[in-house]
C-alpha cells in the first residue's frame, strides 16, 4: 500500500480578496508548501535530505472555492510516476470539512545546480517516492 502524506496548511489573511475568496494562485503555493514538507520529512526519516528539484510542469483543477472559513486545509501528497530523473506528485487539497477543493499534478525533475541540467534521482529520493506511489 502506498504512503500517502498529509499536512495541514493555513489559509492566511492575505490569501483572499475582499469577498473572502482565496486567489487561485495561492493553491499552487499551498501545494508547494505541502510538497516541501513531504520531501523534507520523508527523506529525513531515511537519513537523507532532498536534492535540488525543479517544477517542469504543473496543472491544477479547481473544484470548490476556498474561503477564509475553509481552513485549515489538508493537502494529501502522493506520487503517480517515478522515473530516472523525474517524478510526478499529485496534490489533493481538502477544506476543514473534508471536501475536495482542488487537485493538481507537478512534474518534478532532479536538478544539478552546477551543470544546470537534470540529474538522476538519488537512491534515498527514489525510496521515498516509490513508497508514496499510487499509479494513476
TrEMBL record:
<dbReference type="Pfam" id="PF13279">
    <property type="entry name" value="4HBT_2"/>
</dbReference>
<dbReference type="InterPro" id="IPR050563">
    <property type="entry name" value="4-hydroxybenzoyl-CoA_TE"/>
</dbReference>
<protein>
    <submittedName>
        <fullName>Acyl-CoA thioesterase</fullName>
        <ecNumber>3.1.2.-</ecNumber>
    </submittedName>
</protein>
<dbReference type="GO" id="GO:0016787">
    <property type="term" value="F:hydrolase activity"/>
</dbReference>
<dbReference type="InterPro" id="IPR029069">
    <property type="entry name" value="HotDog_dom_sf"/>
</dbReference>
<keyword id="KW-0378">Hydrolase</keyword>
